[in-house]
Amino acid sequence: MNKKYILFDLDGTLTDSGEGITKSVVYALERFGIEEKSENVKHFVGPPLKENFMLTYNFTEEEATKAVDIFRERYAPIGIFENRPYDGIKELLKELKEAGFILLVATSKPHAHAETVLEKFELYQYFDYVLGSEFHGSECKTTIMKQVLENAGVENLEDAIMVGDTIFDIEGARNVGIDVIAVEYGYGKKEDLKEADFVVKTVNDLKNLLLG
Fold it and tell me: CA-to-CA distance for 122 and 196, rounded, in angstroms?
C-alpha cells in the first residue's frame, strides 16, 4: 500500500480488551443499581466511556463522570490486564516497521492506560507516537487523530491511513481527511464498517493489504 504513516486504534484493533472493559462497565452499573450482562455492553469497547454511559443509560453528565470513576476502580488494577494482543498483531507491527512505515496510535483510551497496555504486551517499541485521551477529557476521535497527525509531522494527508474497528474510527478519519481500513475482528457493527475505504476480516488480511 502506498502509504507512509499508519494510525492504529487500540481496543478492538491491536488488542482484544473486551473482557476487562465489559466487566468493569458491569461493575460500575451495579453501583447505580443497574444489573447488566457483559455481552450487552460490548459497545463500550473503543468509544469514550462517559458519552457511552450517557447515551446508553440516560445518565446525566455528573452521573456519567462518576460512573467512569467507578469503572476505573476495577479497570486500573484488574481489567486493564484482562486483555491480549490479537493473534498475529505483534508480527504484523514488526514487519511494517521493518518495511519502513511510521506507526502511530490514536485511541480514546486514557493515555496512561494506553501506554501501560502497549508496554505490557511489548508493542510500544513499534510506535513512533502514541496518543490517548485525558482521564476526564471529552476528546472525540477526530481531535485525537488530528493531534497525532500534527505531532507526527504528516504534511500530505494522502500519505496516512487509519486502522480501526468502529464507526468512530471511520468518522474520525473522514473528518481529518485520511483513508481508513475497518477490521471486522473487533467490536464494531459490520453495517457501520461498510463506510470505510477498505474492510478486512482478519489480521492476516490486514497484513496482505498493507504490505501487498
Answer: 29
Residue 9 among the catalytic residues: yes
Rounded to 5°, angle at Cα 99 from 121 and 187: 45
Residue among 9, 11, 16, 169 flagged as catalytic? 9
CA distances from 192 to 6, 133, 156, 168, 184 (A): 21, 23, 27, 10, 10
φ, ψ for residue 80, nearest 5 deg: -60, -25
User: One digit per residue, pLDDT tens: the chain, 212 residues?
Assistant: 899 999 999 999 999 999 999 999 999 999 999 999 999 999 999 888 999 999 999 999 999 999 999 999 999 999 999 999 999 999 999 999 999 999 999 999 999 999 999 999 999 999 999 999 885 555 689 999 999 999 999 999 999 999 999 999 999 999 999 999 999 999 999 999 999 999 999 999 999 999 98
∠ CA 11-67-31, rounded to 5°: 120
Of 126, 133, 165, the C-alpha closest to 147 is 133
Return the number of other C-beta atoms located less than 10 Å from residue 37's C-beta: 8
Tally the C-alpha atoms within 13 A of residue 180's C-alpha that lie toward its C-beta.
27
Tell if the pTM clears 0.70, that is, is over it. Answer: yes
